[in-house]
Amino acid sequence: MNSEINNIYNICKHIAENKDSREVNDLLVEELSELIKAVMKLERWNYGDTFLRCEYEDIINNLYEEIGDVIIMLLQFVYKNEIENQEILDKICIKLIRYFETKQE
């Protein structure tokens, strides 16, 4: 899986090279908002919203698509804004350790 992630990151870098930082940042915000809408639609389904006019399979397919779009834009954002991958990994580790420490108390 690691080689797949590296390939995806390299493709995202290549795409981001043809964009300016503002465009990447704006697109990330747009994709995040679309993911929020997809999550809210799933919540509406889970709560039995009778005004929701779509099938569960459509909601899930859209959710996967929006997650993919957000990941693509996050990778472009990280590259274009020169964010260090190791710094992100370090923060993730700290947060996960903190989470497990608080769950053991």
Helix-strand blueprint:
Layout: H1 2-17, H2 21-46, H3 56-80, H4 85-104
Helix pairs in contact: 1-3, 2-3
Describe the structure.
- The protein has helices at residues 2-17, 21-46, 56-80, 85-104.
- Helix 1 (2-17) packs across helix 3 (56-80) and helix 2 (21-46) packs antiparallel against helix 3.
- The model has no long low-confidence stretch (mean pLDDT 94).
- It has 105 residues and is mainly alpha-helical.
- It has 4 helices and no strands.
* Number of discrete helical segments: 4
Outline: globular
The main sheet comes to: none
Which segments are poorly predicted (pLDDT under 50) over 5 or more consecutive residues? none
Structural class determined from secondary elements: mainly alpha
Radius of gyration: 17 Å
Count of individual beta strands: 0
Distance between the termini: 34 Å
